Amino acid sequence: MENQNYDMIIIGGGPGGLVAALYGARARMNVLLIEKMAPGGQLINTQHVDNYPGFPEGTTGPDLAKKLDEQAKKFGAHLKMGTVKDLNLSGNLKEVMLESGENYTAKGIVVATGASPRELKVPGEQVFTGRGVSYCATCDGAFFKDKEVVVVGGGDSALEEALFLTRFAKKVTLVHRRDQLRGVKYLQEKVFSNEQIEVKLDTVIKEIKGNALVENVLLENVKTQEQQELSCNGVFIYVGVNPNTEFLEGKVNLDDNGYILTDEEMRTNVNGVYAVGDVRQKTLRQVVTAMSDGATAAFDLEKKLTI
Ligand code: NAP
User: Fold this and answer.
1) Residue 140 catalytic?
2) What is the mean pLDDT of the chain?
3) How confident is the model at residue 1 (pLDDT cuts 50, 70, 90)?
4) What b/e string do you get for 171-185 counting C-beta neighbours within 10 Å, with b at 16 or more?
5) Exposed, middle or buried: residue 53 (CB in 10 Å: 0-12, 13-18, 19+)?
6) I need a labelling partner for 160 at 20 to 30 A (CA). Which of 76, 136, 213, 234 fits?
């Protein structure tokens, strides 16, 4: 019968969770990682990662996720598919309840649930999701071969994915609400110098329209209030992310935006409960910083359990 008691249970299998699993298992803790979909977290939706150190030629998100998964398992971490429904964090032995009805206990919990794409919240968005509106260029980009698409947002994700989409779409219009992009300068340079990308600054989408599929968007210039209809087949929305912490409300301290508050060792305010990666309040959300968080949490828990 499957062991129900662990030293460390990690909730979420993005880079932070997978590295916590790797470090924990290598320290010979009994580790269970619970992930509701495929391991990799947001890496799965990232076609090209060009700032992962040690890979000057870049790597793909899914490939990196696969290697991290293999490495954690190689050292003995157990990975399980499931969705956490509830937690009891009050005692020394923490309880993790899954939607499937299975219950597990652990001496330490690492929350690595990451963040999910934010909706734009404009008319037409929900109606056309899956019918031209997408939050994942890696998953859906290939459907837009020789078509015209709009990307919304000015952060790293919007810029990276606009560049990726030029492999398929004949034209990409990047729509951003301010007069300056937020993403890293290197990506900005690549976007501005790409002839397939038109950047519309100071512009917002008022409505996404179509019949069976997306056919156009209504744009508005925020300075002049001038409106314009732009024909397009797809709308890719990259307007930031929300932390996946709904199930933690009232259980650990969160900031006003729902991110988990931790100290430098990734400890939350609850003894034995850690948070790593994009789900915690921090300034730099990257694969490499999530991994570093995961290693730190596993190391701290291992020290705590051996003293
Ligand atoms: P982000 O950095 O928060 O950028 C969100 C963008 O969406 C901003 O430009 C924001 O505009 C815009 N926005 C927000 N709400 C909007 C609304 N209602 N309507 C229109 N536009 C709206 O989010 P992200 O790009 O998803 O990145 C999330 C984190 O992951 C960041 O820390 C990022 O650096 C990191 N990341 C790193 C990499 C990498 O290193 N390779 C790749 C992807 C993401 P304003 O600029 O006006 O606020």
Assistant:
1) yes
2) 96
3) very low
4) bbbbbbeeeebebee
5) exposed
6) 213
Catalytic status, residue 278: no
Q: Which of 7, 69, 140, 300 is catalytic?
A: 140
Ligand 1 neighbour 282 (Cβ under 6 A): no
Mean pLDDT of 43-61: 90
285 lines ligand 1 (CB under 6 A): yes
Residue ranges of domains in the chain, CATH in brackets: 3-116+241-306 (3.50.50.60), 119-237 (3.50.50.60)
**Location of structure tokens 């030029």:** 166
Would the pLDDT of 290 be above 90?
yes
Global confidence as pTM: 0.89
Residue 182 Cβ contacting ligand 1 at under 6 Å: yes
